[in-house]
Records
---
Amino acid sequence: MSASHDIPAVLPPPTMENLGGGFHAFVQLDGSWGLNNAGVHVGERGVTLIDTAFTEHRGRGLRDAIGTVTAKTVQTIVNTHHHGDHTYGNFLFPHATVIGHTLCREAVIAGGLETKEWFPGVDWGDIDLVPPTVTFEQSLRVYCDDTPATLQYQGPAHSSNDISMWVPERGLLFAGDLVFNGGTPFVVMGSIQGLIEALTELQGLDATTVVPGHGAVCEPDVIAEQLSYLRFVQDLARDGHAAGDDPLELARRTDLGHFGAWTDPERLVGNLHRAYSELRGEPRGVALDYQFVVDEMVSFNGGQPLRCLA
Ligand SMILES: [Zn+2]
């Protein structure tokens, strides 16, 4: 059995962390389901925002936090991928141009607000879906004032459409959900091998500061831990697939060891489904039955709904 994660009685409020050079990280701990981070650059004429938030309430909290460091308008939003915790809050910044991968735009439009169904009991507010209107395929340079940043497609990895934002002058990497600090990686909508390759590329950047998609701002050594989990899952899947084991049953009898202390350990079930898909030789990122996977993660948790504190 996996270790169960203790539910914190009270979560700390979101914070704005000054990273220098006009860059900030908006951090929502404990980084579990739906509690994502955003990046902020305060420029001379306006603000660049990397990702937004899941619920209307969380999105307004992000807007308020930006208001504590500048009165300037958010002019540009970069969506690191299509998941709702990174995109649902786009509408709260109506003057911004939203940039994302072409597949991110498609996935935001196709997915609508469907992930709301995965997380019963969340107070969503009134969300107006706003997909990216500037899209690209491989890479795009954006400037935060005169500081260049590279948006690089890294998918399929965590999702079909992940991009990272690398600011070489600052040694600063906004990794989106390619990196969870203290949280279980989640690849059911992407590719386990793809995420291994993406993380290996990110290690080569020589970043000094990593803003993960979830969890505290960190140093790049966190990436090695994420890689070791993904290889653990690949090894587990290889043996389980060869033995004809069902992913849920395999997950239930797996000892996650120290990985079990990370948030949302039930993601193992989804990750095994993705690993099995790759072992069957299916294309990276091919659609799986996500509702089935969510139902199995709930079963893994003894019937408890996915814990979302957004
Ligand atoms: Zn995500």
---
Amino acid sequence: MDVNVDEPLQPELVKLLALGCAHLQRDYHGVNARLYDAVQGGLRDVEYYLRTIPSAPAMVLELGSGTGRIAIPLAEAGHIVYALDSSPDMHRGLRDKVPSRLSNRVVPVEADMRDFVLEARFDYVILGLNTVFALLAEGSRRDCFRSVSRHLKPKGRFVLDFMLPSASLKSNREGSYELSMHQEGPGRGYVILTFSRYEEERRLSVLNFLTLEMVDNRISGAFVTPAAEYYPTVNEIRLLIESAGMEVVEILGGYEGQPFSETGDGGDVIMVARLRPR
Ligand SMILES: C[S@@+](CC[C@H](N)C(=O)[O-])C[C@H]1O[C@@H](n2cnc3c(N)ncnc32)[C@H](O)[C@@H]1O
């Protein structure tokens, strides 16, 4: 995983770690995997995937599948879904959620999306909900897209969706803190203090999280997580798709099929590609 260990942590968080008041925790591991479902909101993208992938059982590979937010509803719709993720803790969350009646339709794969080799070939490969942001280095994005093209069936489709940086994200050059609370169940939840800063030249959002895990309304653990997200441009993704032997067949500006416009302020982009005909 491209974990951005080079980005400095905020001094306040370094101090908490030095004092032993908080533990260092990688993104999508440990507490960050436990809280993932509590902080995720919405299924708009899932509805798009359910509409886009026709009803016959399709072979689907989801890269960075996490705890199965997209993979499980697709399996429920009758598809065979390979759920590939490099985090064992996210896989644990997935296994806990997959109902036994779907266990033969969800195939967990613990692997790195930058370089994977599977026997199966797929009608759809999905890189959903900003998961491309985790590929911080250009080489990682290139390797990932090459692996995708090696696993598509001749008529298969590669679908990826991500957000463009909004004006407010881009203006956050100095950095700012934001506090949020997420309830998971009675007496159980998370308080998250997020520091974020956007660097225009590197198209990088630098993130530091301080997470308080709450059990029975008491703090049961404090964790500091450094993270970063790379915001690609549509043109860059198109070039990477082409250099991996594919071509873009559709670009949408939203899950309801809105036309894509470069001039908007942020917003969703959905790109669909196929293998370039020989
Ligand atoms: C934003 S979450 C998306 C989870 C899920 N697709 C969803 O929409 O809810 C990104 C996921 O990508 C995984 N991930 C990040 N880098 C990865 C890599 N290099 N290889 C495989 N999985 C990776 C993380 O572990 C995490 O589960």
